[in-house]
């Protein structure tokens, strides 16, 4: 392309390219770069319009000067046509700040250096399978369509801070993917603080060597997936503090050795699953400070070193089947943690109770651990046939399944007092008056209650009338009480 074929605006850019000088087309600008995409809409006149074909020719075969580093550095321009760099190799830095693109750039399969489109307005961006040896910056951009970076390789960081992607709510339907990052490889951080999206974000199979920062992001795709991060690999943390997500977040099979930080986050997916982190390997999961989760929380088969969850944030359904964790914080009484175990679609999961018991024992709270075990046995009782439930009720009433042994002493004293009073008012008849010892109502009652102890009273006297019925009740109750005490004590001694 000859320079004579260029417009005055394009000539300015052509001449500045070889020395990496910035060309700023903004009215009254002093060369500074702003922070909002609105600057791109100030003017659309020919004095600030550039053809995409000219920029492509400049990047692929533009002028070079010895000892200088060439770079395309433009601020505040309108770019017409398609900037098509598919499968091209571009060594120069591309910096197009606060520009407005009439059509979506095509960068698929390209090999690029550092690319920044800060503050620009685009109808979309197609960059699948591209390789960027520096970073990619889309900070403060407004993209009305989709950003496609599937299978891209970025050796630096990916910046999406304060970007707005997806246009107006509802455009394209709930299944529309507005940010396609599936199987992307980022060798640094993915910075997306304040990101605003309307549609699906795909992060499935992505690999980010650093952290993913979604602090204060607003993600909206009601009634569908808002973030698909299945099998996501993160080198450090996934941060979503004060994030607001309307739709389903799916992190099944993700690996996050640091923490998933959802402090003060708002998660909403009424009638569906708000957060699915099943089969994940997570260092720490923080869910605290925000409103209650709307929708299900699914942590099935996840492995978490520290689970930091406030009971107030838990939704009505919490799926915990085969969840494994080492520490549960903050420390709460067992009465506040137990409802969490009863919200897994009504299913009884003994593993969940064992995990909670172990967490309390690690902190030295044996009382809370016993309460969890007692709750587990009571919950299990509901799954048994009628005779099993009856036997369970007897053990519970007698000794609290062995976790409340003093209750047995109370039953014994109550029955002993009742029997002693009854037999003191009317003595049973002696079987052999000449050989019978003096009648003692207390020891006679003990003879009836204690099946393995004999004080010589039961064999010497024979009750009649309603006293006979009372003696049968005491004998039967004594056997049942003794059996439940033995079963409870055995369970208490054998538990770890």
Explain what the structure shows.
It is a single chain. This protein has 496 residues and is of the alpha/beta class. The protein is 26% helix and 26% strand. It is built from 9 helices and 37 strands. The strands form 5 sheets. A 13-stranded parallel β-sheet has the order 1-3-5-8-12-16-20-24-27-29-31-33-35. α6 packs across α9. The longest helix is centred in the last third of the chain and has 29 residues, at 466-494. The model is unreliable at 29-41 (pLDDT under 50).
Secondary structure: elements and pairs:
Blueprint lengths: L7 H10 L5 E2 L24 E3 H10 L9 E5 L2 E3 L12 E5 L2 E2 L9 E2 L2 E2 L4 E2 L2 E2 L4 E2 L3 E2 L4 E2 L3 E2 L4 E2 L3 E2 L4 E2 L11 E4 L4 E2 L3 E2 L4 E3 L1 E3 L4 E2 L3 E2 L4 E11 L4 E2 L3 E2 L4 E7 L4 E7 L4 E11 L4 E7 L6 E5 L4 E7 L8 E2 L4 E6 L4 H8 L8 H13 L3 H16 L4 H14 L6 H20 L3 E2 L10 H9 L11 E2 L3 H29 L2
Helix pairs in contact: 4-5, 6-9, 7-8, 7-9
């Amino acid at each position: 392309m000859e320079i004579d074929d260029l417009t005055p605006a394009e000539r300015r850019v052509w001449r500045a390219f070889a020395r990496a000088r910035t060309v700023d087309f903004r009215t009254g600008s002093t060369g500074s770069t702003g922070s909002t995409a609105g600057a791109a809409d100030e003017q659309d006149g020919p004095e600030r319009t550039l053809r995409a074909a000219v920029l492509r020719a400049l990047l692929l075969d533009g002028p070079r000067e010895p000892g200088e580093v060439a770079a395309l550095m433009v601020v505040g321009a309108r770019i017409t046509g398609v900037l098509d760099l598919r499968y091209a190799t571009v060594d120069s830095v591309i910096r197009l700040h606060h520009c407005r693109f009439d059509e979506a750039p095509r960068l698929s399969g390209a090999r690029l250096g550092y690319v920044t489109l800060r503050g620009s307005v685009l109808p979309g961006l197609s960059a699948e399978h591209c390789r960027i040896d520096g970073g990619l910056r889309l900070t403060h951009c407004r993209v009305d369509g989709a950003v496609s970076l599937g299978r891209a390789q970025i050796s630096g960081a990916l910046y999406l801070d304060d970007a707005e992607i997806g246009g107006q709510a509802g455009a394209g339907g709930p299944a529309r993917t507005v940010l396609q990052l599936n199987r992307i490889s980022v060798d640094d951080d993915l910075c997306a603080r304040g990101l605003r999206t309307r549609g699906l974000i795909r992060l499935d199979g992505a690999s980010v060597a650093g952290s993913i920062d979604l602090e204060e992001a607003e993600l909206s795709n009601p009634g569908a997936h808002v973030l698909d991060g299945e099998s996501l690999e993160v080198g450090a943390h996934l941060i979503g503090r004060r994030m607001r997500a309307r739709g389903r977040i799916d992190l099944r099979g993700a690996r996050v050795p640091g923490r998933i930080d959802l402090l003060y986050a708002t998660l909403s997916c009424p009638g569906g699953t708000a957060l699915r982190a099943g089969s994940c390997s997570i260092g720490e999961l923080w869910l605290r400070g925000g409103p209650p989760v709307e929708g299900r929380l699914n942590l099935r088969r996840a492995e978490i070193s520290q689970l930091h969850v406030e009971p107030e944030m838990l939704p009505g359904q919490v799926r915990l089947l085969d969840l494994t964790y080492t520490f549960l914080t903050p420390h709460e009484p067992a009465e506040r943690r137990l409802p969490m175990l009863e919200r897994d679609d009504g299913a009884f999961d003994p593993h969940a109770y064992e995990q909670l018991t172990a967490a309390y024992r690690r902190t030295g709270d044996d009382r809370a651990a016993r309460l969890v075990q007692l709750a587990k046995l009571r919950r299990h009782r509901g799954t048994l046939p009628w005779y099993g439930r009856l036997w369970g009720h007897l053990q519970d009433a007698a000794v609290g399944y062995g976790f409340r042994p003093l209750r047995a002493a109370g039953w014994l004293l109550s029955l002993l007092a009742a029997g002693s009073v009854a037999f003191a008012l009317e003595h049973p008849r002696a079987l052999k008056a000449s050989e019978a010892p003096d009648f003692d109502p207390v020891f006679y009652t003990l003879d009836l209650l204690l099946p393995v102890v004999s004080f010589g009273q039961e064999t010497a006297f024979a009750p009649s009338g309603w006293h006979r019925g009372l003696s049968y009740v005491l004998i039967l109750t004594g056997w049942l009480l003794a059996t439940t005490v033995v079963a409870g004590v055995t369970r208490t001694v054998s538990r770890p």
